[in-house]
Amino acid sequence: MIDLMLLSDLVVNLPSAVRLQRLVSVLREQFQCGAVAVLRLEENRLRPVAVDGLVHETLGRRFVVAQHPRLAAILSRRDPTRFEPGSELPDPYDGLLDSQVGEPLPVHDCMGISLYVEGIQWGVLTLDALEAGAFSGEATQTLKHFGLLAEAAIRVTRLEQELQGLRLVREPHSGNGVSVVEVEEEIVGQSEALQALLHELTVVADSELPVLLLGETGVGKELFARRVHVLSRRADRPMVHVNCAALPESLAESELFGHVKGAFSGAISERPGRFEAADGGTLFLDEVGELPLSVQAKLLRALQNGEIQRLGSDRPRRVNVRVIAATNRNLHDSVRDGDFRADLYHRLSVYPVPIPPLRERGNDVLLLAGRFLELNRARLGLRSLRLPPDAETALCRYPWPGNVRELEHVISRAVLKAVSRGATRTEIISLGAELLDLDEGVDSQEMVRPMTGMGSASAEIGHAELQTVMPMREVVESSQRHAIQQALTASDGNWASAARMLNVDASNLHKLAYRLGLK
What angle do CA 344, 348, 353 make, to 5 degrees? Predict the structure, then answer.
């Protein structure tokens, strides 16, 4: 009966995640065990793609094979591998069973089988039972049978993806034949918002259009830019990353377009720029809104004509570069304020792609947390790290103004706190909500409140004066908010004029305003 159920799934058009999830659920029922998981092999690590009986954040973890001897043993054999109940090899799912959250696995049965698709090792199927001896007798032979069904399900899923065009088959730039472009699975998440974004990037990657990635600080714009490059026709050519915010104005032109010998003091030899380094490939301009106006005109020429000119040279050079730009600024406002050229903005924003903030990605926060937990576990040589229910609730409720980067820092900090407070490397460490140190009083709307109607800062300062003691950081930030608001009022909301009044660089003022929550 179970066989018929799984076979029927092979002929029904199901999303790959649903098909594999039904597979592990059926196997858990068939073997009456505590947990079943399917993990895909990606280079030297295993990525969970479907689990039943394990906590949800397990899907975000990446298990480095060399660090998990049980998984390594399963991969080393084509036949099923069973571990005796008394095996001293550490279990990768220690503390992750949803029936024993945070508790070490007792003496238990464990077995698994490596999965192959078209003769190539694809991953593993693992089963854990809480009762010793549960997998005795013919269990391993039965697992071998179900392993073949799992491989068939994976083959069907792969075929469907190819037919739907989700895997891009390209003509290579040289030679004959075809090459299949695979994307590194660095972007973790299953939310509808993320899946819609990934699909959109897959479509636009096939074009030669410039792409402008828009998103808050910490959403991972560089990862999405890399995805566009890897899925494009330029995948076998270089992708060059330029952090525009880190380029001093005096060196920005030389860095982007290169220079000839003697072009300026210290130019002792000829040097190509980033455009030439990316010739034939992709140039990623991160924080493009921070480029000085003097360089924007030459960037526009390069985009329009495909020509650059090294600093100090009269000879133009042809370059074939696809530009992907990213910014956390509102370039409409920058154009209005005179900080960004309108013609360059229109050239870069042929295809704008907004990146959703973490607070709009639902339970992706738990998958990402699982990823960072596993990274910290491996980095510090710990037995197991996990999140109790109160911590998961806190993570889901917090608005994450710093997005994925902030989440990574929160998890890393909590792990270090737990170890510094006496947790040992041989125990299962639970990171409670108190270790995460999240301010649940922060309102997500405050992260995106408009710039108008901000006359409350002076009232905040007046209220602060009633307090006997106020942290220095809050005093400084309140004063900064008040000064920026006064300058904006005096300049009718023009940020460039406000920057001149405050005697600060305009780009630094924008960054400070974002940090203070004024933008």
Answer: 145
Q: Which helix (H) or strand (E) holds 38?
A: strand 35-42
Q: Where are the beta strands (DSSP E) in 189-321?
A: 211-214, 239-243, 282-286, 307-309, 316-318
Which run of H or of E encompasses 125? strand 120-129
What was the pLDDT predicted at 18?
78
Q: Under a CB-based contact definition with an 8 Å cutoff, are residues 271 and 259 in contact? A: yes
The angle subtended at Cα 478 by Cα 473 and Cα 480, nearest 5°, is 95
pLDDT digits (tens, 9 = 90+) for 307-358: 888 888 888 899 999 999 999 999 989 999 899 999 999 999 999 999 999 9
- pTM, two decimal places: 0.75
495: left (phi over 0), alpha (psi -120 to 50) or beta: alpha
Neighbours of 29 (CB within 10 A): 13
- Structure tokens belonging to residue 503: 């005697």
Residues 385 and 413 sit within 8 Å (Cβ to Cβ): no
pLDDT (tens digit per residue) in 233-286: 999 999 999 999 888 877 888 889 888 887 777 777 888 889 999 999 999 999
Q: Could you give the 3-state DSSP secondary structure of residue 202?
A: helix
Nearest to 83 by CA among 104, 112, 40: 112
Q: For 41-74, how does the pLDDT look when each residue is reduced to its tens digit (9 = 90+)?
A: 998 999 999 999 999 899 999 999 999 999 999 9
Closest CA to 102 of 146, 54, 66, 70: 54
Alpha carbons 502 and 237: distance in angstroms, whole number? 45
Question: Cα separation of 157 and 155, whole Å?
Answer: 5
* 3-class SS letters over 58-87: HHHCCEEHHHCHHHHHHHCCCCCEEECCCC
